[in-house]
Amino acid sequence: MRILGISAFYHDSAAALIVDGKIVAAAQEERFTRKKHDPNFPVTATRYCLAEAGIDARQLDYVVFYEKPFLKFERLLETYLAFAPRGFDSFRKAIPVWLKEKLFQKSVLRNHLAEIDDNVDWEAKLLFADHHQSHAASAFFASPFSEAAILTLDGVGEWTTTSAGYGREHTLDLTREINFPHSIGLLYSAFTYYTGFKVNSGEYKVMGLAPYGEPKYAQTILDHLIDLKEDGSFRLDLNYFDYCTGLTMTNDRFNALFGGAVRDPTEPLEQRHMDLAASVQRVTEEIVLRLARGLAQEGKSKNLCLAGGVALNCVANGKILRERHFERIWIQPAAGDAGGAVGAALAAYHQFAGQPRPAPAHDAMAGGYLGPSFSQTQIEQRLGQVGAVFATLESADLIPRTVEALIQQQAVGWFQGRMEFGPRALGARSILGDPRSPSMQRSLNLRVKFRESFRPFAPAVLRDDVADWFDLDSDSPYMQLVADVLPKRRRPVATGDEKLFGIERLNVPRSIVPAVTHVDYSARIQTVDADTNPRFYDLLTAFKAATGCPILVNTSFNVRGEPIVCTPEDAFRCFMGSDVDVLVIGNCFLKKEDQSESLKLDYKNAFEPD
Predict the structure, then answer these.
(1) Residue 59: which H helix or E strand, with range?
(2) Same domain, 322 and 344
(3) Which residues pair with 483 in a beta bridge?
(4) So what's the pLDDT on residue 105?
(5) Among 279, 287, 328, which Cα is nearest to 310's?
(6) pLDDT (tens digit per residue) in 529-566
(7) Neighbour-count burial of 444, counting CB atoms closer than 10 A to its CB (0-12 exposed, 13-18 middle, 19+ buried)
């Protein structure tokens, strides 16, 4: 049975294909169109999935959309009626779009699918899953567990913002939910907006900014914005928000409560903004922890699966793990809306078609490597066509040359195998660096990524060595858990440096791997083993042999505002438009100084800030 899952029309559109229950391909549309968070129907991603499986559209049994448009329209109408006449301007702008496109989304989907093949009876194949059903299916059915508790958290689907339940074998039962407008995701997005970052894009910046502040406003949030119960259920005070009927997330009452207007993105960050970030992060962690504890106390499972955009909050995930109410947790690597494409297809296969689930040995996401790959011949041809100068090395030479470049403090673009699915680069489309360098974090942010200097980088670490460096002794292949650097790997902070505040703390080395140690001694960890990414594993092993350090800085291969690179041409353009020193694609080794000056690009202002 062949089932195509689709998520589209909001942000991070994607396509995923499963064949007889196995995920064979998945990709976000943004990687092909080069438009970050592209919300449009994933025509190109769908074509890729079909090509990867070696089938044509007529061989599909079902196409499953990741949510139900009529329920979303119902929520829109009921919300505006509940708040009328307030918000009429927002209603007037939204309704024509819904009436023209979204209310009749079945015909819109049919028309888009006809672009792929207009000889297919698409209506006969088309199914719709609930938004949070898609999230839950992506979490449980793709997990390595035969049974588990499930928690999904995001901004909003049709009505649901938080759901909880249980999965067993090929069944899924969501037993509890919290509905719009009460939403942990929208609470976090309100502070994303208020601190001057983009909603649905900048939430991870707020998480990265939080350790620079103190949670001074956490009690204010709990006293005024949210009524949080012991079991994690909550209600927001909507008098402080404008997202139900307005065109902004917050209002003047919110501004007055927190002592100022919304930060303009061009304005400098102040200590107050860092304290706000720390505060909403602290409250979010408390909500998530209470929800997880409540599920654990029911005693139905020692396993927990997470999905939804809030499940990308790896700091909260790490705290769930450390509380040890669950023996094992698994977070869908594409936890946001893109992963809904995977979940919709899996939900159709197991729940609609009633197909059994194979006994899981590993998770079904294949390390996240579900996107396009390129043969060595294709790589060489494509690099030649764009005028790149490269050497083709044997594998035995490629790894030592790359290690040498890393030891020389060079930034290395690393392009190998199948592209990752989801927001994280996991060693297939990565920029790598030496974590022992005190200047690497700031240098990569400003010279290579062209982004804010406070943004942390993740350590990729050999699985066998993770417990010797971090307060973690479990798998974290998808960079979804935060843990502290062990005290034995830390460096004492000088007396004068202890008094620094905010961003001033950025350049104080705190461990022997300062480039991946955040200001609170934490790190967002990716564990690497030989099974899922053997070449990346070999590189880490060789770097350890040369330096004694089994860790590399791993950040996504892109610049600010650009999607992660997909093709060799994308990688070469990014290489020539940034201060990446070395590019390794397949067995091709490229040095910046060997390239023609005429091919250099100005990438610094090529993309809008994200």
Answers:
(1) none
(2) no
(3) 523
(4) 77
(5) 287
(6) 999 999 999 999 999 999 999 999 999 999 988 999 99
(7) buried
**561 is a domain residue:** yes
Rounded CA gap, 192 and 365, in Å?
30
Give all strands of the β-sheet with 391-392 in edge-to-edge order: 391-392, 588-591, 582-585, 412-415, 429-433, 551-556, 458-462, 522-528, 481-484
Q: Does residue 130 sit in the same domain as residue 192?
A: no
The CA-CA-CA angle for residues 23, 457, 144, to 5°, reads: 30
Of 266, 298, 328, the domain-final residue: 328
Does residue 462 sit within a domain? yes
- CA of residue 342 relative to chain centroid, distance: 14
- 495 contacts 534 by C-beta, under 8 angstroms: no
In a domain, 200, yes or no: yes
Supply 370's token pair.
């579900």
Q: Are residues 350 and 320 in the same domain?
A: no
26 contacts 342 by C-beta, under 8 angstroms: yes
| CATH number, domain containing residue 488 | 3.90.870.20
Whole-model pTM? 0.94
Structure tokens at 607: 């993309």
Residue 215 sits in the same domain as residue 99: no
Report the distance separating Cα 582 and Cα 589, nearest Å. Answer: 7
Question: Other CB atoms closer than 10 Å to residue 326's CB: what's the count?
Answer: 20
Distance separating alpha carbons of residues 36 and 40, to the nearest angstrom: 11
State how many domains the chain has: 3
Beta-bridged to residue 174, according to DSSP, are: 165
pLDDT in tens, 495-510: 555 555 555 666 677 8
Q: Residue 421: give the domain boundaries.
A: 376-599
Instruction: Assess whether pLDDT exceeds 80 at residue 80.
Output: no
Residue 156 has pLDDT above 70, yes or no: yes
> What is the DSSP annotation of 363-397?
-TTGGGB-S----HHHHHHHHHHTT---EE--HHH
- Residue 406 counted as domain residue: yes
| Mean pLDDT computed over 487-499 | 76
Same domain, 381 and 451: yes
Q: How many angstroms separate the CA atoms of 48 and 327, rounded? A: 38
Cβ count within 10 A of residue 356: 10
Q: Which residues neighbour 53 within 8 Å (Cβ) at sequence distance 6 or greater? A: 2, 17, 19, 24, 25
pLDDT for res 243 = 87
pLDDT tens-digit series, residues 555-565: 999 998 899 99
Query: What tokens appear for 249 in the block?
Result: 């997330």
Please indicate, yes or no, whether residues 408 and 481 belong to a single structural domain of this protein.
yes
